[in-house]
Amino acid sequence: MTSRNRFSPQERQARSRLAQILHVQDVICGSLVSMSRTCGKAGCRCARGEKHVSLYLSVKMEGRRRMVYIPPELEEEARRCVAAWREADALTQEVSAACLNRVLERKRKGRADG
After folding, report:
1. Which of the residues in the chain have pLDDT under 50?
2. Which is nearest to 81 in space by CA: 31, 24, 21, 28?
3. Rounded Cα gap, residues 11 and 18, in angstroms
4. Any idea where the domains of the chain sit in the sequence?
5. What letter would DSSP give residue 62?
6. What SS3 state is found at 54?
7. CA angle 84, 90, 60 (to 5 degrees)
């Protein structure tokens, strides 16, 4: 097992927070989109221009972008899941950058030794 001491305090913190998110929270890789539409009923308010507003989750499923309707009672949960994903993605990018820097540093040292 690799020693944690080789990681900077910032990277250790990012890895720890990432693990917390993935172990405790649900995450959804997607975006929330508010869409306005008309229903088509002749007497409805949307026929006069007051469109119905609905929340959709834009996600990739089976290689294609899909829009999944989110009912109002699940809106808060969906927002939490997407926010958790965004935080986890940012932390993953931070950890990846630190790993890349280590590889590049070893590569640079290898050239200096050779």
Report:
1. 1
2. 28
3. 10
4. 7-113
5. T
6. strand
7. 65
